[in-house]
TrEMBL record:
<dbReference type="GO" id="GO:0000976">
    <property type="term" value="F:transcription cis-regulatory region binding"/>
</dbReference>
<keyword id="KW-0238">DNA-binding</keyword>
<dbReference type="InterPro" id="IPR036390">
    <property type="entry name" value="WH_DNA-bd_sf"/>
</dbReference>
<comment type="similarity">
    <text>Belongs to the LysR transcriptional regulatory family.</text>
</comment>
<keyword id="KW-0804">Transcription</keyword>
<dbReference type="Pfam" id="PF03466">
    <property type="entry name" value="LysR_substrate"/>
</dbReference>
<protein>
    <submittedName>
        <fullName>Transcriptional regulator</fullName>
    </submittedName>
</protein>
<keyword id="KW-0805">Transcription regulation</keyword>
<feature type="domain" description="HTH lysR-type">
    <location>
        <begin position="3"/>
        <end position="60"/>
    </location>
</feature>
<dbReference type="InterPro" id="IPR005119">
    <property type="entry name" value="LysR_subst-bd"/>
</dbReference>
<dbReference type="InterPro" id="IPR036388">
    <property type="entry name" value="WH-like_DNA-bd_sf"/>
</dbReference>
<dbReference type="GO" id="GO:0003700">
    <property type="term" value="F:DNA-binding transcription factor activity"/>
</dbReference>
<dbReference type="InterPro" id="IPR000847">
    <property type="entry name" value="LysR_HTH_N"/>
</dbReference>
<dbReference type="Pfam" id="PF00126">
    <property type="entry name" value="HTH_1"/>
</dbReference>
Amino acid sequence: MNITVRQLELFVSLMRNPHIGKVAEEHFITQSAVSMAIKSLEDSVGEQLFDRISNRLVPNESGRLLLNRIRPALEQLQEVETMFRLNRMAGVLTVAASSTIADYIMPQVLFDFRCLYPEVQVEMLSRNSADVIAGIESGSVALGFIEGDYECRVAEFRELCTEELVVVSSDKDFASAREYSLEELLDMKWVLRESGSGTRQTMWEYLGPAKKRLNLFLELEHIESIKMVLKNPDTLSCMSPFCVQRELANAELFPVQVEGVEFKRRFYSVTHRQKYKSTLLQAFADHVRKHLETMWPWIMRNPQH
């Protein structure tokens, strides 16, 4: 079998963007050279890796299988080449994070990391936690960060910290009056994130059967939209303290004490079990963890770290 690294590089590029012309431009070669390399690779493995449909290349099941098998090894080869040739941290890392982490934690992390490693490009995607896990499963995301516990057989989870969600209202008198039972709050107008979000999942787990009686008045995708709606009377939401730090400090929102209820959850970094853990990937994950360790007192640090 005479498979070359160049053939595999072109194959990976075509799997990502199945347009021969674009791949040829990306690698500074002719379209015929790309076609010949892919044909030689198919001959070597004894399988067609792309379906030719209406003059288009469409990755097939054999192509996807080969991609999953060779991508970790190819990434490791590329890292070794970069390490010895350039002797510096460099590369492109695709990261997805759930909304709370992406909007309220990652901006400063990305800024600090870029200052440390100017040759690194981090492609940041904001998703809900369920979609982050889906990206890890499909291999389209190298490193994920989520809120809450999820089941995924192909994923590796590394616990980063624990936090406690806070129930908030814009009504200072209501919030400061007393501690409320959960039953007293169920009929109020609750404004929450959409199904699939880590915040929503954490609430549902703690509410148990009571969630069927909670007045879910409105579902919104964006946290800032929820905070705007909370200006209306008789509205409540449940959020990460990361999201409302400014509003709590400026007395725009107020914490509501709920008797006997603690909406605690864990933050995790997530990778695919078969994903090669490059130096860059590990450095970024460690940078996020260290950043969280220095943040606000709402975080209850994981004793393992």
